[in-house]
Task: inverse folding
């Protein structure tokens, strides 16, 4: 039996500051560990509700109401409003001051999303030294697509330097013509549109979004399902109605393109849409928010409202009702530029969560969407693989097939499984802890300790559990090598791969959802569904994809057993291990970055790069 006391050597060694791939960790405030689900589970109900709000604050320096929203009402997101010509350095100081308020008491230590409106032209909140003067959306639309993408990357880098990590842009609304623009107050009158056709808006708006995202700034496609054909502005007028747009309208194409392009946020319009849901503004319509955006377009990111604070369109509802109705419709993030309304909005959402289990579930789902987005932006450490204790660090553990026994460092040994079972530990219930689990090929049954036994698969299937839908819970899934088909419980089966491929599902684009992916040993090629095909590796290599740099995206990597060399795409290749070693990369020190690690079956020893070797296990054990 492994000696659990020996494993403390590893924890001690890592705690002393073992260097990670690429050098020592930068000196910065610690970010919450355990991944989105783990963080959500540790939050109080009040802190969870606070994550559902983005409060306005002057870009030149926020007032006491905005500060109180964070400190007293646990608000987890801020929008810099108004206009500032103070420049990037001054804005950075404002952002840093806001982040300092995100304490363990206020937000459970989760950093803020700091957003602003940086579209260009008439809508550019941040100006001055360090910020380019951005052209209008219409002018951007006339640029070569590659040029616009490059310019947006520069503008995004400027925002990042100022501490801004969310841009409430691009505008994906389509105005039908130059003539129509004159009678379209919210968009056309200010030349916010990228052009007068859905194809131009889709192409140029997506280029803007991709450029911004490449600089480390999340983007917001707005204003779903479109404000390009209304004749009044919901910010300044009540009763604004679109009488043209339908649920299958071609004018939805730009939004779909932005979502496919990786937009992390979508902003809801507050206009009425007579041919979809005439009785409710879009932001309060389950048909539009959940049915169309989540359902028809398949968006899995953060759904943010347009301003629900000062907008005349929603003034007839009480502030509390506005917030509750938006979350109940399926929204994630309530935006109010008016910080004085936060107490009423927050109290109403909290009260409704306490009164209704259905609404409480919607609050949890919304908060999880936001926390997943924050992980993607590096504000929360991704969940540690093999974290059985929920402390944000991977634990040493082995499964002994001969006896069906699990040995986890620091925990009591537990018999769960039998000879022939395949261990498939993962977080199946979303509590931030890895669950003991086995897949029994003989009958295609999953046995998940303390959760459920589920028949899903058949003999010959390869289990590939991962979080494919981004809800913070690992989904049951199998890859069928004979046909190259993926079966994910609750989703449509999809052919992707061929016989001989090695399934390597993971979140390669940082959207909080595992992507279908295979590594083809014959050619050393990675095929990532919807992302890219990349040659990286060669025959005989073992794929070890993981997030080695802590940016929330899985990196391509292979371990070459013949030489003991790890090849991490974009990182210097370390030699660590030898022939016969089993690679078990995971985050053993809880810094949010995967550590290069091998288990040596011949001696039952774990070798974590930068830490002391630890005997834990014996010959024949499977590292888990």
Result:
């Amino acid at each position: 039996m492994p000696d659990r006391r020996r494993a403390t050597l590893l924890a001690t060694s890592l705690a002393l500051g073992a260097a990670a791939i690429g050098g020592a960790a930068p000196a910065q405030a610690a970010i919450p560990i355990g991944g989105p689900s783990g963080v959500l589970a540790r939050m109080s109900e009040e802190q969870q509700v606070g994550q559902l709000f983005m409060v306005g604050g002057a870009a030149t320096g926020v007032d006491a109401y905005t500060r109180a929203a964070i400190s007293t009402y646990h608000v987890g997101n801020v929008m810099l409003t108004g206009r500032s010509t103070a420049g990037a350095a001054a804005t950075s100081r404002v952002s840093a001051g806001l982040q300092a308020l995100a304490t363990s008491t206020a937000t459970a230590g989760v950093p803020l999303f700091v957003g602003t409106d940086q579209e260009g032209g008439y809508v550019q909140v941040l100006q001055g030294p360090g910020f380019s003067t951005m052209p209008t959306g219409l002018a951007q639309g006339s640029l070569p697509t590659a040029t616009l993408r490059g310019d947006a990357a520069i503008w995004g880098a400027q925002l990042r330097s100022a501490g801004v990590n969310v841009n409430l842009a691009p505008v994906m609304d389509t105005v039908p013509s130059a003539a129509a623009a004159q009678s379209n107050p919210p968009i056309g009158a200010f030349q916010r549109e990228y052009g007068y056709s859905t194809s131009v808006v889709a192409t140029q708006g997506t280029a803007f979004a991709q450029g911004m995202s490449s600089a480390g700034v999340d983007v917001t496609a707005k204003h779903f399902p479109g404000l390009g054909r209304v004749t009044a502005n919901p910010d300044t007028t009540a009763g604004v109605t679109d009488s043209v747009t339908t649920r299958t309208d071609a004018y939805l194409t730009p939004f779909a393109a932005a979502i496919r392009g990786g937009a992390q946020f979508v902003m809801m319009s507050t206009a009425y849409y007579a041919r979809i849901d005439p009785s409710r503004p879009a932001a309060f319509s389950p048909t539009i928010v959940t049915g169309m955006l989540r359902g028809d377009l398949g968006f899995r990111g953060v759904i943010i409202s347009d301003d629900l604070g000062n907008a005349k369109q929603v003034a007839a509802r009480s502030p509390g009702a506005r917030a509750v109705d938006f979350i109940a419709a399926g929204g994630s993030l309530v935006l109010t530029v008016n910080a004085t309304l936060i107490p009423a909005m927050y109290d109403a959402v909290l009260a409704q969560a306490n009164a209704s289990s259905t609404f409480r579930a919607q609050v949890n789902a919304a908060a999880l969407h936001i926390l997943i987005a924050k992980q993607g932006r590096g504000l929360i450490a991704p969940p540690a693989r093999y974290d059985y204790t929920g402390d944000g660090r991977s634990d040493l553990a082995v499964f002994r097939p001969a006896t069906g026994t699990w040995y986890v460092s620091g925990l009591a040994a537990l018999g769960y499984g039998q000879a022939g079972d395949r261990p498939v530990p993962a977080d199946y219930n979303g509590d931030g802890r890895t669950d003991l689990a086995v897949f029994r090929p003989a009958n295609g049954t999953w046995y998940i300790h303390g959760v459920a036994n589920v028949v899903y698969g058949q003999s010959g299937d390869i289990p590939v559990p991962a979080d494919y839908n981004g809800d913070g819970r690992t989904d049951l899934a199998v890859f069928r090598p004979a046909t190259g088909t993926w079966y994910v419980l609750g989703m449509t089966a999809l052919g992707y791969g061929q016989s001989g491929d090695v399934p390597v599902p993971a979140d390669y684009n940082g959207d909080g959802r595992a992507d279908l992916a295979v590594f083809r040993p014959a050619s050393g090629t990675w095929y990532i569904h919807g992302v890219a095909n990349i040659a990286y590796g060669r025959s005989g290599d073992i794929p070890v994809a993981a997030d080695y740099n802590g940016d929330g995206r899985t990196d391509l990597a292979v371990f070459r057993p013949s030489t003991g060399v790890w090849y991490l795409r974009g990182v210097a290749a370390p030699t660590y291990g030898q022939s016969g070693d089993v690679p078990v990369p995971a985050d053993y020190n809880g810094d949010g970055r995967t550590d290069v690690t091998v288990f040596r079956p011949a001696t039952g020893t774990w070798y974590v790069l930068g830490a002391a070797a630890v005997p834990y296990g014996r010959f024949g054990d499977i590292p888990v």
Summary: Residues 148 and 208 are 6 Å apart (CA to CA). The mean pLDDT is 91.
